[in-house]
Amino acid sequence: MTAVIEKIGMGLAQVRAVVVGGGTxxxxxxxxxxxSSVAAIVSKEWNMNPIQRGLVISFVFVGILVGxxxxxxxxxxxxxxxxxxxxxAGVFFFSIMSSITHNVWQLTVVRFFVGLSFGIGLxxxxxxxxxxxxxxxxxxxxxxxxxxxxxxxVYSCILLMIDDTDMKALHWRWQLRMGAIPATAFGIxxxxxxxxxxxxxxxxxxxxxxxxxxxSMQHDNGAPDFELSYRNxxxxxxxxxxxxxxxxxxxKLLISTAIxxxxxxxxxxxxxxxxxxxxxxxxxxxxGKISSAVKLLIGALWEFPGMLLGAxxxxxxxxxxxxxxxxxxxxxxxxxxxxxxxxxxxxxxxxMIKCVVNCGFVVLYQxxxxxxxxxxxxSGAGFAFAGGRVAGIVCPLVFEVLRAKxxxxxxxxxxxxxxxxxxxxxxxxxxxxxxxxxxxxxxxDDSEDxxxxxxxxxxxxxxxxxxxxxxxxxxxADRLS
Length: 481
What we know:
2 strands, about 0% strand, Growth Hormone, Chain: A, mainly alpha, disordered C terminus, 20 helices, globular
């Protein structure tokens, strides 16, 4: 399948998929920034204590965690497209429900389901996007998808500025309703324009549907016409269906799974913890020349350079190390600047955090989808992303507890920096480099070489051009392996 995608190339088919399917990131960015920004207003209206305020945010990530865990088995069994559509529908419905809640417990429960909707959609989209994109373009597609997260944040910032630039008298119910609109638009577009993954269809023996999707992509991209037939290899396990968890935590992928789970934890702890901290710290700052909503918008715009850095053609493990070093430096700089009321270090640290963490999202999430084969790709991505969601659950509570114990939010940034330092060390134990490597369908069962995760048997379409079919010499020359 990988060779077919390479021959089809990059073009309109992938661009259309990113615009509609990648909108999952847009809806995610809009909703998460929105709820973090209105939490203080809701807290005052309902007389919430800091722990309750943190729980409202944490339960969004509990929902995302559950959704990530559900996404893997469902997506690898029934397909990626259905989960993306379900995610959009859930985000819209439960966001509207959030706006009509009347107490903290109602809001907490409903926001759990908003998070669950995000959680089932993101791993499915990441898997689908990797499976329809040529190797050299996968990082570009990943960064483009995640750039939509930033546009979602910008959308929320605009709503905040329309309502109250100082973010002290926000109409939070209206904000949540407006934040639900993007999910509706992207969901409708995806229903009509988003295809199922051809790699998944071929793996499940649905060859007619897989061929139809590939032909549609070939037509959209203007690629040469071709004929396809399929040969399903026998698993060396004797045809016994191996459970997804036994593959993820088997001999060949255990170390990779453990490290990407921890790496996703650190990445999300830094990003969402900082997002929550900034939404609390920035409005509390007095005497600034720039309004709070505008500062959040500036921070969101600084994420774009991070996306571009993440898309550079650099080996995955090297880019992860660079992001971690820079993130650690930025966190310490912001903490020192805020501790001593030095605006310049604070501003530099703030912008650097927003920039480099997004570089980390691009490279780490891409690596996570590449290191796993098609049979467990959504499960692997979902499990790794779930590790990140644990961080999203605990980081608001950690921030509030550290702030209450120390009287200052600065310790939170130093704790985050220490997590980055540990992550920098363990990256060296990753066994596989996936830069421009072909995606595979199965983990190899070859016991002679334990480092052959990227040399498994594939579901092999036998591809030949129309010209080759006429001359009768194309099948062996163009066999996919």
